[in-house]
Design a protein that fits this description.
Helix content: 40-55%
Number of strands: 24
Mean pLDDT: 76
Distance between the termini: 29 Å
Largest sheet: 6 strands, mixed, barrel
Number of helices: 42
Shape: elongated
Structural class: alpha+beta
Radius of gyration: 42 Å
Strand order of the largest sheet: 4-5-9-6-8-7
Oligomer: single chain
């Protein structure tokens, strides 16, 4: 029986046999070529004969079971031959149904009949032999015909697309679970990328929040230059210059801007405000019962009315002698201007009235006061009035102090960006009413002329500093991961201002930018980690989509074979697969962007509540473009291999429904000429070439240009290369590890079950490999992320510990404590037991102490190389007092008088007889000046004993007692980038170098005392700090600072919370994506092996065995992948920690998140059970005959 198509009467005639040229039902226009017609007719005959042979074979094989079907098929074939129409036999595939509907649809048949370019009154139109597709044949073709051809081409294309869409819709409705997995994968890609890229773009907000908390929300601070010998600014003139309204003495505008030519620029430069701040003493009225809280009565503060001259000029101290004054910082601010310029975004208090102040809550607690209470402020006029007080010609009988009685208008808890967050004793008063209020609090007996002069003063002409902020949306320039770009914008803005107001008379500071620079390395490393996170999440998502498409092809092998058998071309298969891919991506793209935008508003609100910094809630353009590209392009790219797989299958194997598609043995035959070009080898070669170029050229370029961003991008590429290399290495041992897991965890199980599990793992190796990669990378990603998070947090904390040396220390605000204060602190600490176990002193730098004007130098004997140094004297127990782990030395001199080998007693060794004249220096000088334990070097010290004497420079030939890599509280390093390092000697050696200045060790000025506490708990440290503060405030007559480790790291907690939220979110996403892959893989394995399952059930194997086999397979797959993931994640995480230790010289530990790993393992076990139990139970609930009839 033949199925030859007639050339004259056949409705759907195919002249060209090349599947790539025409689609299923498009009629070729090449009838004039007789050779092609004959060849194609012959090919059609051969193909039809083959088809009939296949039909006959199928009829013979199924003669006993399907007689009725064969008869129907034969009838259909006969009808097809007699009517010369292409018909499609119905089968179990839904694709056949859709093609039948297409053929039987009268509307579509009418459409094809009326195609004027193919038919004319039922006959095929003759085409011109001229190649009208070429330029020379275009003029011969009627324009109307071309238009009709184009219209018909579009109609045909739309018709096919409509068919593919309906067909894809039916398939998705039939396989809802598979579609939901693919849809979810694409949705996660779009959602993750759009949201995460937007978050990463705004990651600098975290560091901006830390910087603003440290220094306040101040972009530019202008102060008078020290060379001007003035400490005040004329804010009125400055504001007029910036506004373009200032007139010079000739009456002309200073900048000729009165014509509003630069109105926009002047508006941007109008966000500024004056300030005056300084230190005062505060006493509560309740603690001074003998005082008069009436603000209009001031005589008692300056004079004793009952006994003249008995307490003057400090009668206030006499009246309130029982009170303990508390040191505080007074900020005189213009609340209205600062609100307009955005200084203190979350500040809610209004402008205080005259004579009232706002008090910080911690200070209020110390003073035991609340809203409405009265305070006495001791305000030094030298700080707050300066030249005003000097020019008022106040008599010498009037002390330069104003005792002001104020009312507490309200209290506030935190700085809210008004001043540094480490300030806990602040008082705020209004700028506009400050001077009139001080006039009312002056000594009533003060000279009238002086008061009159002061009353005429405009305080805005005598500002101590001027704060200038960027115009609204001032945060936008800071939201950039490249600090060079941020600095460029800020400097450009400040340059314009300084040029206008006089850069040669002012000193400028960029507080926020300076603080951001301190976190530059942390920001860069965090950006590196986030880039790795995005890459891994994208890798997992791409792999999942590819896996789903491949599974879709493998589970529809029979359907694809039927479609190819009835004439579907290669282009048809490709378009159908692309429609399948787009059915995942297009709906998920829209929904993913929508949900990401909703989460964007939520994340923005959370950011603002945590950091106080509002970030743009809308998705960034970069995020939308990247998510759109990945959400649409990735499915297409992922469909390449499934399409090749679908088109590469043998038609006979695709239509074979009697045998399983699972092949434990694969045989491939390759022709030699086909191996002339290998795409995999070309890809590897290209990657290695690019990698070599990057290492050979780009890496040195980043080092020479000191481009840290480029350098860390190189580190990112190296990290990804190491990750992929570890994954490839792990895949080679995957099968060995799976066998080991089977024998280890199921040693008690029956041998037959273990054998079937191993055979299943071998048969499903290729499909399971994708799941194994995803699980291994996911767990490696989780470990890497958490190790990185721990490393970042530990790095920030350890930097503070290394800088402070202990949890608590006392440091002088001046260069050093006076001898009296040193003795007082020493006596108090020696009695503060047992809370303070020990304490150690540090002297001030030798350069500062000796009033010299030439820095101390370290040089080699040949005077070729020299470097500055700050030499300190320390107590013998200093390193035993400081926190352990930070003291590292490359070499230590042997001392016969001191045999202790513990490095923490290194500070005691320099007090021995043999080492008393030796000095500790950095390991850097081993290579730079050739210093070593046995090699001497020159130490040059400059001394100026008093103001009248000349500088005396002396060189000493000394040997190092130790070459130090790092030390707590001091600056040491072995890297040449760290210059001007410290050096350490004993107090007797320090005194010998300064013998012309001091005669006793007790006279050496001390700058800091480090405390060793018996507790590391935050509350315990806070208790000790408060007790120290009370004693020092009451007894110490000079400025000091208590350095608390917990106070310093408190702003870091905000960043830690944000980073932890992000890492937790990405961890959940990684596990979700991996679970999708596991479920789809196990489902496909079971569906593909339904015939084997049916055979085993028919042989009598219990259902419980079958369930155990497939659950065990999923368990072994997950367990082996998890072990590989632990190895990869630990290796990559440890590598990053080693690199960070190299950069920071900090003892950052390698901490594995064991609790999280256990949780992930437990979840993985549950995932493996549920992914296998449901599908296998569904299959086993069917009869054996139904199981064996399932077509895949």
């Amino acid at each position: 029986m033949t199925n030859k198509r007639s050339s004259g009467n056949n409705k759907y005639q195919s002249i060209n046999n090349n599947d790539d040229e025409e689609d299923d039902f498009i009629i070729s226009r090449d009838n004039n070529n007789s050779n092609n017609s004959n060849n194609n007719n012959n090919n059609n005959k051969n193909n039809n004969n083959n088809n009939n042979n296949n039909n006959n074979n199928n009829n013979n094989n199924n003669n006993n079971n399907n007689n009725n079907n064969n008869n129907n098929n034969n009838n259909n074939n006969n009808n097809n031959n007699s009517n010369n129409n292409v018909r499609i036999n119905k089968s179990n595939s839904s694709s056949s149904d859709s093609f039948d509907e297409f053929m039987e649809d009268p509307e579509e048949q009418s459409f094809l009949k009326n195609k004027e370019n193919c038919y004319d009154n039922g006959k095929i139109k003759k085409r011109s032999n001229k190649p009208y597709g070429k330029l020379k044949g275009i003029s011969a073709i009627n324009g109307e015909t071309i238009k009709m051809k184009i219209v018909n081409w579009f109609r045909t294309l739309l018709y096919h697309w409509k068919h593919f869409f309906l067909h894809t819709l039916r398939i998705n409705l039939r396989n809802k679970l598979s579609y939901l997995l693919g849809f979810s994968a694409c949705f996660l890609v779009v959602f993750i990328v759009s949201l995460c890229v937007s978050i990463i773009t705004n990651t600098p907000v975290v560091f901006l929040s830390l910087s603003e908390a440290s220094v306040g929300e101040m972009d530019i601070v202008l102060t008078p230059g020290s060379w001007t010998l003035s400490d005040q600014l004329n804010y009125t003139m400055l504001s007029e210059i910036l506004a373009g309204t200032y007139k010079d003495p000739n009456g002309t505008y200073f900048d000729n801007n009165n014509n509003n030519q630069y109105a926009s620029e002047e508006q941007d430069e109008s966000y500024h405000s004056p300030r005056i701040d300084g230190t005062i003493s505060v006493v509560s009225a309740t603690s001074c019962p003998n005082g008069n809280p009436n603000p209009d009565v001031n005589l008692w503060k300056y004079h004793d009315v009952s006994q003249p001259n008995s307490c003057e000029p400090y009668c206030f101290e006499s009246v309130c002698s029982a009170s303990v004054p508390i040191r505080s910082s007074l900020y005189v601010i213009d609340t209205t201007r600062e609100k307009r310029m955005g200084l203190g975004r979350d500040w809610t208090l209004s402008t205080p009235s005259q004579g009232s102040v706002y008090v910080q809550q911690k200070l209020a607690n110390k003073l035991s006061i609340s809203k409405g209470d009265t305070l006495y402020l001791r305000i030094p006029t030298k700080t707050f009035l300066s030249s005003i007080w000097t020019h008022a010609n106040v008599s010498t009988s009037t002390i330069p102090i104003v005792y002001a009685t104020v009312t507490v208008s309200d209290t506030f808890s935190s700085s809210e960006g008004k001043f540094p967050s480490d300030q806990d004793a602040a008082i705020i008063i209004d700028y506009s009413t400050f001077l009139p209020f001080l006039e009312s609090q002056f000594d009533p007996e003060m000279n009238y002329e002086s008061k009159k002069y002061i009353s005429k003063i405009n305080l805005y002409d005598y500002s101590k500093k001027v704060i200038i902020n960027l115009p609204p949306s001032r945060l936008t320039p800071y939201i950039n991961s490249n600090q060079d770009i941020i600095l460029e914008k800020i400097v450009d803005f400040s340059n314009k201002i300084l040029y206008k107001v006089g850069f040669n008379e002012l000193s400028s500071d960029l507080p926020v930018m300076s603080e951001l620079s301190k976190n530059r390395y942390v920001s860069l490393f965090l950006g590196l980690i986030l880039n790795v996170i995005i890459f891994i999440l994208l890798f997992l998502s791409i792999l999942l989509i590819y896996s789903l498409l491949m599974i879709d092809v493998e589970t529809r092998t029979f359907e694809m074979g039927v479609m190819r058998m009835i004439g579907t071309t290669r282009n048809g298969i490709i378009q159908l697969m692309l429609f399948k891919a787009f059915s995942y991506s297009v709906p998920s793209w829209g929904l993913g962007l929508l949900i990401a935008q909703v989460f964007g508003f939520i994340v923005s609100a959370i950011f603002k509540s945590i950091t106080g910094v509002p970030i743009p809630p809308r998705l960034t353009g970069e995020a939308v473009l990247l998510a759109s590209a990945l959400g649409i392009i990735i499915p297409i790219a992922s469909a390449i291999f499934p399409i090749r797989n679908a088109l590469g299958k043998n038609l006979h194997d695709s239509l074979d429904i009697k045998h399983s598609k699972t092949a434990a043995i694969q045989i491939s035959i390759e022709r030699s000429e086909d191996n002339s070009f290998s795409s995999s080898v070309a890809l590897i070669g290209s990657l290695l070439s690019v990698f070599g170029f990057g290492i050979y050229y780009v890496f040195p370029l980043s080092l020479l240009s000191f481009n840290l961003t480029l350098l860390l991008n190189m580190f990112f590429m190296l990290l990804i290369a190491m990750l992929l290399g570890l994954v490839s290495l792990a895949l080679n041992v995957e099968q060995i590890l799976e066998r080991a897991v089977v024998n280890l965890f199921f040693f008690w199980e029956k041998r037959a079950i273990k054998s079937l599990v191993i055979k299943n793992l071998i048969a499903h190796k290729l499909r399971n490999r994708k799941t194994a990669i995803m699980y291994a990378v996911s767990l490696a990603f989780i470990i890497f992320v958490n190790v990185s998070y721990s490393m970042q947090q530990a790095s920030m904390n350890y930097q503070v510990q290394q800088s402070y040396g202990s949890y608590l220390s006392i440091k002088s605000s001046e260069p050093y404590f006076s001898p009296q204060s040193t003795w007082l602190i020493d006596q108090f600490l020696s009695q503060y037991q047992p809370e303070i176990e020990d304490y150690a002193w540090e002297s001030t730098s030798f350069s500062i102490m000796t009033k010299q004007y030439q820095q101390s130098q370290i040089t080699n004997i040949g005077h070729i190389y020299s470097d500055g140094t700050n030499m300190y004297g320390i107590s013998p127990n200093l390193f035993a007092t400081t926190l352990p782990g930070f003291l590292k030395a490359s070499s230590i001199a042997q001392d016969p008088d001191y045999t202790l080998n513990d490095i923490q007693y290194l500070s005691e060794q320099i007090y021995s007889f043999s080492s008393s004249q030796k000095i500790m220096i950095g390991s850097l000088y081993t290579d730079v000046i050739g210093a070593s334990i046995d090699q001497s070097f020159l130490l040059q010290l400059a001394i100026k004993s008093d103001e009248t004497s000349s500088v005396n420079s002396t060189r000493y030939l000394v040997k190092p007692s130790a070459m130090v890599d790092s030390a707590p509280s001091f600056k040491f390093s072995k890297f040449p980038s760290v210059t001007n390092q410290d050096s350490i000697v004993s107090f007797p050696t320090y005194l010998s170098y300064a013998s012309s200045v001091f005669s006793s060790v007790r006279e050496i000025p001390m700058t800091q005392v480090i405390l060793k506490l018996n507790t590391a708990d935050k509350s315990g440290v806070e208790t000790i700090k408060n007790r120290l503060a009370s004693f020092l405030t009451a007894n110490l007559g000079e400025e000091y600072d208590i350095l608390s480790y917990y106070d310093k790291i408190e702003p870091f907690s905000t960043a830690s919370v944000i980073i932890q939220y992000f890492f937790s979110f990405t961890t959940v996403l990684a596990m979700t994506i991996s679970f999708f892959s596991l479920m789809s893989s196990v489902y496909s394995n079971i569906l593909e092996q339904t015939k084997e399952i049916g055979v085993l059930c028919a042989l009598g194997i219990p259902k419980s065995w079958m369930i155990r086999i497939y659950v065990y397979e999923a368990f072994v797959l997950v367990m082996a992948s998890s072990m590989l993931g632990m190895f990869i994640g630990s290796t990559v995480g440890y590598t990053m920690i080693l690199q960070r230790q190299l950069f920071t010289m900090l003892p950052i530990p390698m901490t594995l998140p064991w609790q999280l790993i256990i949780i992930v393992f437990v979840c993985s076990m549950f995932f493996s059970f549920f992914s296998a139990f449901g599908p296998i139970r569904k299959v086993l609930n069917q009869p054996v005959v139904s199981i064996m009839r399932v077509v895949t």
